[in-house]
What does this fold into?
Amino acid sequence: MKTRLSRQAVEFLKVISSSGQIGGQVGDPWLRRGLRLTGRVMLALWLAIALSGCSRLRPKPPAQYVYVTAKQTFLRDRVAAVSNRTGAVENGDKLEVLERGRRFIRVKTAKGEQGWIDEKAVATQEIFDQFEALKKQHQNDPAVASGVVRDDVYMHVSPGRATERLFRLAEGEKLKLLRRATLPKPLPPGQRPPKPPAPEQAAATKPASGEAKQAQVASAEPAPPVMEDWWLVRDSKGDTGWLYSRMMDVDVPDAITRYSEGQRIVGAYVLTTVNDPEAPQDDKNVPVYVTVLSPFKAGLPYDFDQVRVFTWNVKKHRYETGYRERNIEGYLPVEIKMAADPYGKSPVSMAEAPMFSYRVLSADSPVVVPDPVNGAVVPGKTNLKTYRLEGNLLRRVLEPGTTAPIDAHPEPVAKKKKSEPKTKRR
It folds into this structure.
């Protein structure tokens, strides 16, 4: 290491060398030995000072950090069966790494507390950066529905049980749902997927009828994998991550939950309010809801298959179905707004009124297949359907002279048979 000596250091060396020369000129041997010894001590002292200054000029290695994944844990003063607690940390806390052991890490908290923590209870800086990138990427995404955490659960950096996790949500945490993904459910350890039957087994018995042949072909095909749904959510702190759908519930008012009729309410949106002084609830401004529903089944290639509007009957003081559409392949979000009918010419149409819109799969669009890697459900061609609430009646907003496009249906639509003409009795 090259070191540039200052003018004071050069003068100091001259003094030391001159002291050695003076010591050599002195006749007394004891005095000459003392002067030489003094010069050597001063030289060693100066070298120690110079070397310490050089070490301070070296850049310090960058600090390393980890983040607590456990709900709550403690720091210990040593890695042993018997130890003392030196601090407490909670989920998401940032810790500075001081020393690494075989299975434990010595860390320091923001309060200055130091201690050892199990490496299984923390996440690396890389995992934290992935969550931050996910948060930044979806910070402007609109919420398609609201949810509530059913039990303590972790948010994952991507859909899937084996993906990295960090933030732990407590029971009752309010969520904003952003988008859905669906993936095959992982098999238990040691279990293999079932194999399809061999061709010779399938051809052993030949059916006599066409229906039996179709049944044999269906039984020869391997069973589809069991799917599970994941939701990209944003919590009350703004943290973003993927959550297993069974660990949360869509936030739906109790007043309309009993009308679900065995379906799962995917989203509930306030279209407008109706004032009823004799309403049984405390708030006399009763909301009118637009709800979208789906079966209790994961892995669907659509978000909902039914739309239902609950209007309020002022005379009977109860909810009633004002509009319902079934057997569709709908996709979130549902848009709610106040607007005039862009195609209407009457005074009623030109006035602003509550409107809602949603998209459904078009009949001429290919079948939607979830992405096998990230589970994304992306539809092809869709039809926009817009409805307007005028008073207590719903009317579809459609450009005059145009016919409504044909929608796709998850279940085949039964064709109505023409009724035979009745014969007159003689």
The first strand starts at residue 65 and ends at 68.
